[in-house]
Specification:
Helix content of chain A: under 10%
Number of strands of chain B: 10
Structural class of chain B: mainly beta
Number of helices of chain A: 0
Order of helices and strands of chain B: EEEEEEEEEE
Number of strands of chain A: 11
Strand order of the largest sheet of chain B: 1-3-8-7-6
Order of helices and strands of chain A: EEEEEEEEEEE
Mean pLDDT of chain B: 94
Low-confidence stretches of chain B: none
Helix content of chain B: under 10%
Mean pLDDT of chain A: 92
Oligomer: heterodimer
Shape of chain B: globular
Radius of gyration of chain B: 13 Å
Amino acid sequence: ETGVTQSPTHLIKTRGQQVTLRCSSQSGHNTVSWYQQALGQGPQFIFQYYREEENGRGNFPPRFSGLQFPNYSSELNVNALELDDSALYLCASSVSLQVGYNEQFFGPGTRLTVL
Amino acid sequence: EDQVTQSPEALRLQEGESSSLNCSYTVSGLRGLFWYRQDPGKGPEFLFTLYSAGEEKEKERLKATLTKKESFLHITAPKPEDSATYLCPNRDDKIIFGKGTRLHILP
């Protein structure tokens, strides 16, 4: 059984640029969630995708957007990068629509640095 | 505002020195919680789900308990490999993580 994978591992961008992060769900999981984790903080929920549609969103602006594909892999896109976007971005998959009610399995994360 | 507060923020123990970590919740209608451990620069790893007050779960040296508004993670005779940040988000459609407790076990 393959776990959750994310790419790239690290990324350096400059302010104003756009970035795409990728995630492959654990086998058999149909729901993907994305989190932002700043240094020394807990993860913050960005949004969740179920059956290729956004199904729940945290307190993040529209420049954070995503996609889920038929094979349940997912992308997180961030436009107009700001310095405060520097963080570890985590993808998590689960088997249920009600993501907050079932354990999630996290990938290793993508470390984004915005200069 | 709904919050998950973890204490202490950091804890240093000698190998074999037992202790407890605490999570308190100011969320309305707590429906249980999860415990995760997170190693530096990695994603959280699932440990336990606790569904209701009075429930307990154990795994190796870890034991998690839940009251109506608090959860405790008891670590018995810890080893250096137990060093990690421990997180306890609520179990709800609005999942909230606290800052975590950074646990360091000295050999």
